[in-house]
Design goal:
single chain; mainly alpha; 9 helices; about 0% strand; globular
């Protein structure tokens, strides 16, 4: 799925640029300090990046489920990949606890993807016709509106998403409302695989092939880019380069 991989590669590059800016700000290397938690320029980008990742995850699940339509819905290959995502999510929690003891990541984007991948597989029978998935996705996106409850404000329960206030954490991608984005990706992917398969599986121009390669290694890049960025900036500070 070269085109889908290239789209995922775009998300990776955008995410890396965002994180590099965050790290530069964290190390006080911006001439004008930025507020990544409240400034709309940064918060809007974060929302768009996460949305693109989840949309790609939904598209990818539709492609995999369509290709393996004659086989089991829960093949061994899916569980291997799921274990990789879940394991990396635990590593992110551990690493963030060292760097951000107060705002460590208990349910970030990888945690959310791990749970939502299971829910998307369960929802796959609704893909034909696709409109039930679209409606379910819309309901998920709208669910936090008016359904918030203090019960969901603890670290043990805030993964659901129906919180009364955003928790103190460096990354937070709860099931609700974000499941809606992945379900829409799943619905779009099911339609594309049936009616416009080349839009996802077609070849990409030579100039975009590096993005497709990057997209195929998205999880590895995700896990490595921040240690490389932070390590480089720490080394530069130790050497008094900045």
């Amino acid at each position: 799925m070269d085109r889908l991989d290239a789209l995922r590669g775009v998300a990776i590059v955008w995410m890396a640029a965002y994180h590099l800016c965050f790290d530069l700000n964290f190390f006080h290397l911006f001439a004008h300090p930025q507020n990544f938690y409240a400034d709309a320029f940064w918060t809007t980008q974060r929302t768009a990046i996460v949305s693109l990742f989840l949309l790609c995850a939904g598209l990818g699940q539709a492609a995999a489920l369509t290709a393996g339509a004659a086989g089991p819905r829960w093949p061994a290959g899916f569980w291997r990949r799921w274990a990789q995502v879940a394991g990396c999510a635990l590593l992110v929690s551990a690493g963030s606890a060292v760097m951000f003891p107060r705002g460590w990541i208990s349910f970030g984007v990888l945690h959310g993807i791990a749970v939502m991948l299971l829910l998307c597989r369960l929802a796959w029978p609704l893909a034909r016709p696709g409109w039930p998935l679209v409606l379910l996705g819309a309901a998920a996106l709208a669910s936090p509106l008016g359904l918030e409850h203090p019960f969901f404000d603890t670290r043990l329960t805030n993964w659901v998403g129906l919180v009364t206030h955003k928790p103190i954490t460096e990354d937070y991608v709860p099931v609700l409302p974000w499941l809606g984005v992945m379900l829409w990706g799943l619905a779009a992917g099911a339609w594309l695989m049936q009616h416009r398969r080349a839009w996802l599986a077609g070849a990409v121009p030579a100039a975009l092939r590096p993005l497709a390669v990057l997209g195929r290694w998205s999880l590895a890049f995700y896990m490595l880019h921040q240690p490389v960025f932070i390590g480089t900036l720490e080394a530069g500070r130790a050497l008094k380069l900045w």
